[in-house]
Amino acid sequence: MNERKRELAERAAEVREALAVAAGQAGRAAEDVTLVAVSKLHPASDIRDLAETGQTEFGENYVQEALDKQNELAGLNVNWHFIGGLQSNKAKYVAGKFALVHSVDSSKLAQALHKKAVSLDVVQDILIQVNIAGETQKSGITVESLPELAEAVLGMEGLRLVGLMTMPPFFDEPERARPVFARLRELRDGLEPRLGVSLPHLSMGMTGDFVPAVQEGATLVRIGTRIFGARPPRG
Ligand SMILES: *Cc1c(COP(=O)(O)O)cnc(C)c1O
C-alpha cells in the first residue's frame, strides 16, 4: 500500500469510528449513517486509493471536475454524489451521472434535471437543499418555499425525492449548528405526512460539525478535510 493510500484509509477509518460513536450516543445504528467522502479539488488518484480500501461514496462540487474524474476512473466501483451549487443550464450534464444530487434548490433546476432524466429514461434521486439560517449568500431554498418545491418535484417523474440537505453557517463551536440540524429533521418529519411519501435521507454534517449532525439524525455526512486534508485552491 502506498503512503497516501495508507493515510487516507486510516483517516477514513477514524471518521467512521467517530460517526459510529455519535450514532450510538443518539441510540442510532452505525449502519444508518453513510460517509460521503468529499473529494473536490483533490486528485482522482486519492479517490482510487480510498475506493480500493472500501469507501464507496464520493462527493464532488464542480460539474466539469466531477465529470473528468468519472471519466478517468471509469470502471471503479463507486457512487458519485453531486453536492455543489448547480446552475440549471448545467443540469443536463449532471442528470443520470450521479447516484444522488444533494443540492436541488429551485423549481427551475428541478425541471431541468427532470427533463434530462426523462430523455435518458432514468429516474434521478435528489435531495432538496434548505437554507435554514436564511443566509442570503448561501444556496438552498427558504424554509417557507420548501413545501411548494417538494410538491412540484413529486410531480416530476424523472426525479425521486429521497430527503433533505442543509449546510449551516460556519460556527467555531459545532454545538451551535445543532439547532439547524434538528430543524432539518423536523422539516422532514413534517413533510412526510403532508406529501404522503417517505423521505429517508438527511444530508448534513461536515468535518467541523458532523457529531451534532449525526446525533440529530443525519443519514449522509459529507466529509472532506478530515479525510483528504486541506484542499488546494481552486484554479
Ligand atoms: C466542501 C463541502 C463539504 C466538505 O467540507 P469539509 O469541511 O472539508 O468536510 C461538505 N458539503 C459541501 C456542500 C461542500 O461544499
Plain-language structure description:
The chain has 235 residues and is of the alpha/beta class. The protein has one domain (3-228): Alanine racemase (TIM Barrel, Alpha-Beta Barrel). It has 9 helices and 8 strands. Strands 7-6-5-4-3-2-1-8 form an 8-stranded parallel beta sheet. Strand 1, helix 2 and strand 2 form a beta-alpha-beta unit. The longest helix is centred in the first third of the chain and has 23 residues, at 3-25. Bound molecules: pyridoxal-5'-phosphate. Residues 38, 40, 61, 83-84, 167, 206-208, 222-226 line the site of pyridoxal-5'-phosphate (PLP). GO terms for molecular function: pyridoxal phosphate binding.
Counting DSSP E segments of at least 2 residues, the number of strands comes to 8
Q: Could you name the CATH class? A: Alpha Beta
Bound molecules: pyridoxal-5'-phosphate
Strand arrangement across the biggest beta sheet: 7-6-5-4-3-2-1-8
Radius of gyration: 17 Å
CATH topology descriptor: TIM Barrel
The H/E string reads: HEHEHEHEHEHEHEHEH
CATH architecture annotation name? Alpha-Beta Barrel
| CATH homologous superfamily label | Alanine racemase
Structural class: alpha/beta
Report the average pLDDT across residues: 97
The low-pLDDT segments are none
Helix tally equals 9
User: What's the helical proportion of residues?
Assistant: 40-55%
